[in-house]
Amino acid sequence: MTRLLRPSRLLAAAVPALALAAALSPLSAPAAPLPVDKAVLDAQAARIEAIKKVHPAVVAVCMPDGTGCGSGVLIDAEGYALTNFHVVQATGPFPTAGLANGVLYSAVVCGIDKVGDVALIKLVPKEKGKPFPFVQLGDSDKVKAGDWSLAMGNPFSLAMDFTPTVTYGIVSGVNRYQPPEGKGLLEYTDCIQIETSINPGNSGGPLFNMRGELIGINGRGSFEKRGRVNSGVGYAISINQIKNFMGHLRAGIDADHATLGASVGSLSEDAPLQQMVVKQLLDESDAFRRGLQEGDQLLEFAGRATTSTNQYKNILGIFPKDWRVPLTIRRKNARQELLVRLMGNQAAVVERPMPGGPPMPPAPAPKGPAPKGDGETAKMYEGRKGYSNWYFNVLEQNKLLGAFKKHGDFSAVAGRWVIEGKFEMADRNGPMKVEIAEVDGAAKVTMRLNIETTLEPLKQTDVAVQQEPIGSGGLMMAMYHYHRFLTRGAKGFEGLFAHGGHEPFYPYPLDGPGPKSLAELRADCAVIATKHGSVNCKWYFSLKDATLLGFETYVDKDAKDTENRDPCEVYFHDYKDVGGGRKLPHKMEVRFRDKRYAVLTVTKYATEK
């Protein structure tokens, strides 16, 4: 009868035999180790150093019933961390988060992107003011197939002390497209395909390059039929896509992705090169109003070439709703560029949990009563329709308006304003005078551009009147809202006053030749969205120094007549001190429907208390 040996007995039996063999061998001296190429040792050292650097910032996002963990990564010292939407969908608004130091932190969901499967959470420090470890954001547009990458996270909840698992492999593809997981949600566009192993529990975890820079958030994988074993292909949401939504996520917005409002497809299967052309257009789309036509060939979308349906979907999917992007088209062998505002993607908010199953299934939805925050996190959550957490929207509003206030406090001059100077139009010019007064709730705007026009914004509700002067899209209404915004702030807008995330803004040059491309005009801005009466406005503040670069006034945003949906656009230039530490623009360009209406040069501001 044979019997298995215990490991210790097996070792004891082997020692005499090894000793005898060594004694009988004429070559008993050990062989010298083979030399290792210095480049290999250097690469190993760099890899170990990169892991060591980012290791403390990897997050285990814990399910409320203790059934498992997702993953995440800290991106700043304040405790903000990125993860997947489908991870926090299972945790509710108050996840708990463990770090590699073994400490469990309370957390709260800040912003979500259901379509892109991204969420931003905020960890609460144990000691107030103590910074968290965090990683640097990389540039995913520089990632190439064949690059080495590191994935970190908590597959299968292996580490109960929150120590992350590290896997190492190559990037096997870039600019990949993965269709939505039902209802238009969890669509992976322009994502990074990796051989680096990820499994259930890695969801929301970081993908790094070999410098320890964050290049993506892992979220999906290709699995065998049983749905638990990775077939060797995973997908990470690119960090550059997430950067486009970061302003929305920090402002607690339930973010939406963009559509063009047009159907775009290949011209012909037999064409030698895939030519993407506009097949259909929605009449209510901004693309239609900007002049896009059926049959136009789409050459570039936001500066990137479009030669296939896959490319088009990838590029379109990385932008938030309402962003304006340049399109380059060819029509009758002539190239032209259009600046188009993108439409929204979500038809309705889906509240139910994401269905289970591969790839990367989420943890089940919490059972029992909805989770509640502790004393600190409970203060950091406020539900509101259209927002994942209104608390953070107010927080971002206050930060932005606090920075803007450095350019002047106008609350002490909320009385009558008189603005004098001159105007220049394509066909005429002359003296300009604008008077704005609001007393006891009665508002009146008088504007003289050769001809004097008067508007009572709250009484005259006819759209044609509110859009005067003719051809401006509502310049008098715009000036009324500008006065109200500066002097009253949030208190002046009963319908809406919210941080709108980040958007690009395109101030045109006042003089000289136009730009070679619209991309040259782009200024990245933080946005405040307001509504007073029936009029909506969007206010654009430079991300560099919080200067108000301009705003748009929508007199009738939801008009059935699509011609009335375009805003009056006002661009500010030449800020100068007007006393009391206040600065105001001394040149304003007014545009409507892609055309310049006028340039206003201000020589005098007179303001009253």
Helical content, roughly? 10-25%
* Cα Rg: 30 Å
Mind telling me which CATH architecture of the largest domain this is? Answer: Clam
Kindly identify the CATH topology of the largest domain: outer membrane lipoprotein receptor (LolB), chain A
Q: Provide the domain count.
A: 3
**How many β strands by DSSP?**
33
Q: What is the name of the CATH class of the largest domain?
A: Mainly Beta
Name the poorly predicted regions: 1-24, 348-369
Biggest sheet record: 11 strands, antiparallel
Total helices: the number is 10
Average pLDDT over all residues: 87
Strand content: 35-45%
Task: Give the structural class.
Answer: alpha+beta
Explain what the structure shows.
- This protein is α+β, with helices and mostly antiparallel strands and 609 residues long.
- It folds into 3 domains: 53-176 and 183-221 and 230-257 and 381-388, Thrombin, subunit H (Beta Barrel), CATH 2.40.10.120; 258-344, PDZ domain (Pdz3 Domain), CATH 2.30.42; 404-607, outer membrane lipoprotein receptor (LolB), chain A (Clam), CATH 2.50.20.
- It is built from 10 helices and 33 strands.
- The strands form 6 sheets. An 11-stranded antiparallel beta sheet has the order 26-25-24-23-33-32-31-30-29-28-27. A 6-stranded antiparallel β-barrel has the order 1-2-3-6-5-4.
- The radius of gyration is 30 Å and the shape is globular.
- Mean pLDDT is 87; it is low at 1-24 and 348-369.
Fold topology:
Blueprint: H1 7-24, H2 38-54, E1 58-62, E2 69-74, E3 80-83, H3 85-91, E4 96-99, E5 104-113, E6 118-123, E7 136-137, E8 148-153, E9 165-178, E10 188-194, E11 206-208, E12 213-223, E13 230-238, H4 239-250, E14 254-255, E15 258-259, E16 262-266, E17 276-281, H5 286-289, E18 297-301, E19 304-305, H6 309-316, E20 324-331, E21 334-341, E22 343-344, H7 375-379, H8 390-404, E23 417-424, E24 429-439, E25 442-449, E26 451-455, H9 463-466, H10 475-488, E27 496-505, E28 523-532, E29 535-542, E30 548-554, E31 568-579, E32 582-592, E33 595-607
Parallel strand pairs: 5-14, 7-12
Antiparallel strand pairs: 1-2, 1-4, 2-3, 3-6, 4-5, 5-6, 8-9, 8-11, 9-10, 10-13, 11-12, 12-13, 15-22, 16-17, 18-19, 18-20, 20-21, 23-24, 23-33, 24-25, 25-26, 27-28, 28-29, 29-30, 30-31, 31-32, 32-33
